[in-house]
Amino acid sequence: MYKSYKVADNFYWVGAIDWNLRDFHGYTTEKGSSYNAFLLMDEKTTLFDTVKSHFAEEMLERIKDIIEPSKIDYIVVNHVEMDHSGALAKVVDIIKPEKIICSLKGKEAMISHFKRTDWPYHVVKTGDKITLGKNSITFIETPMLHWPDSMFSYINEQKILVSSDAFGQHWGTSERFDDEVEFGELMFQAGKYFGNILMPYSNLIQKLLKDVTALGIKIDLIAPDHGLMWRKNIPAIIKAYDDWSKPTLKNKAVVVFDTMWKSTELMAGQVAEGLMSKGVTVKLMKLGENDRSDVMTEILDSKIVVLGSSTLNNEMLPRVADMSTYMKGLRPVNRIGACINSYGWNPNVIKKMNAELEAGGIKVADDGIAVKYVPEKTDLEKCFELGVKLSKSVN
Question: 254-390 — its CATH code?
Answer without folding.
Answer: 3.40.50.360
